[in-house]
Amino acid sequence: MNVVYLDNNATTRVAPEVLDAMLPYFGERYGNPSSMHSFGGEVAREIRKAREHAASLIGAEPDEILFTSCGTESDNAAVRSALESQPEKRHIVTSRVEHPAVRSLAAHLARQGYRVTEVPVDADGILDMDRYEASLTPDTAVVSLMWANNETGVLFPVERAAELAAQHGILFHTDAVQAVGKIPIDMKRNRIDMLSLSGHKLHAPKGVGVLYVRRGTPFKPFLIGGHQERGRRGGTENVPGIIALGKACELAAGKMEDENTRVRALRDRLESGLLERVPNTRVNGNREFRLPNTTSVSFEFVEGEAILLLLNEFGICASSGSACTSGSLQPSHVLRAMGVPFTFAHGSIRFSLSVYNTEEEIDFVLEKVPAVIENLRRLSPYWAEAGAACSGTYTNA
Ligand code: PLP
Q1: Mutate to test the pocket of ligand 1, among 73, 178, 180, 194 (most ligand atoms within 8 A of CB)
Q2: Pocket flag, ligand 1, residue 245 (CB < 6 Å)
Q3: Residue 384 gets which letter from DSSP?
Q4: Residue 202: which of 344, 96, 354 has the closest Cα?
Q5: N or C: which terminal CB in the chain sees fewer CB atoms within 10 Å?
Q6: Beta strand ranges found along the chain (DSSP E)
Q7: What value does the mean pLDDT take over residues 173-202?
Q8: Cβ–ligand 1 contact at 165 (below 6 Å)
């Protein structure tokens, strides 16, 4: 069975060019970049090139790029460094819809005595800027706000938020794991101090990430050890991963605009097709300020997990907007923060596309989903009741 992979915000396929670039570093080019001999030195040179490509994708300088093991490490390193370098400040500002890489860290730090403010979002998933501004205090050490939401794709105005933080002398970190490679980012044109990205979200393999640290930003290493990464992250480098990430960044920089125009068109085709064909369906989140590849769609009166299982039988991979907490399925914290109505929130599916998707695949999904939803609704007592109440009118919220 062919797989129709629409779960690219979970992870992406390694691009063939990226795989080709990294393979020699598992084989004949196994030198340690820290070695004095030229066998290692050649590897160090390739790492330098990868650093230049990563820097160039986000308009940074190579010495502002610190290779890590993943987005989660980058997020943790950024927030912890900000706290450690300003021990007198005890307040962290973040949002209600962050990825667990920031949200769970903030909860952990709150248990250790830090004060955490989670800024709310509106029904569209847009950050409440008034509440954000009001949350900044002389005691605030760091703001950590995501650039793009992994579930809805909604974009936060992080450049404006960073400007406000800078006016208060507060360090600003952004989790840009879902944004990098999908939207243009130019660190020369903003005042963001630190930015996280992750290789496996942009067609590099799992196990490699970047933390951008602006020149002059105080930085305390998370991994303390050798002198790698100019003393900012100890540990022998993940050479194949870094080479791969460099290649993925190079590819993304060259093709982003064209490819994302195509991906956006496919996403819009999928989204409008679903809204047209399936009654009682809505899209979660602002449809203008969001990533080109993501749509979060809710089908009223059905369970997201049941939808996923049935789609899986056709080889369609997506993910649901629910989280399993203490054995019961709860709508995700993102959908709850947006106040998505209960009957919709449970039936939420995230479709996230990539450059490898085709129009044929989208049409296949549009052919299968309406029947899947109809079958599930036939079994749903809530749908029977609601159907009677609606007497057959179809509404697309
Ligand atoms: N931040 C966001 C917004 C994400 O979507 C993810 C992964 O899904 C992460 C952080 C964590 O990245 P990684 O899987 O590389 O640790």
Answers
A1: 178
A2: no
A3: H
A4: 354
A5: N
A6: 4-5, 65-68, 91-95, 115-119, 140-146, 171-175, 194-198, 209-213, 281-283, 294-299, 316-317, 319-320, 322-325, 328-331, 348-352
A7: 98
A8: no
Encoded amino acid at 4, one letter: V
The label of the residue with tokens 């049409």 reads: 363
- CA pair distance 385, 366, nearest whole angstrom: 26
Q: Are 239 and 25 in contact (CB under 8 A)?
A: yes
The whole-angstrom separation of Cα 315 and Cα 2 is 6
Residue bearing the CA closest to ligand 1, atom 10: 71
Does residue 148 register a pLDDT over 90?
yes
The rounded distance, in Å, linking the Cα atoms of 185 and 47 is: 22
Model's pTM, two decimal places? 0.95
Confidence at 394, pLDDT banded by 50, 70, 90: very low
Average pLDDT along the chain: 95
Tokens of 210: 């970047």
Confidence of residue 387 (pLDDT cuts 50, 70, 90): low
Give the integer Cα–Cα distance in Å for 197 and 150: 13
Residue nearest ligand 1's atom 9 by CA: 71
pLDDT at 343 over 70: yes
Q: How far is the CA of 371 from the centre of ligand 1 (A)?
A: 33
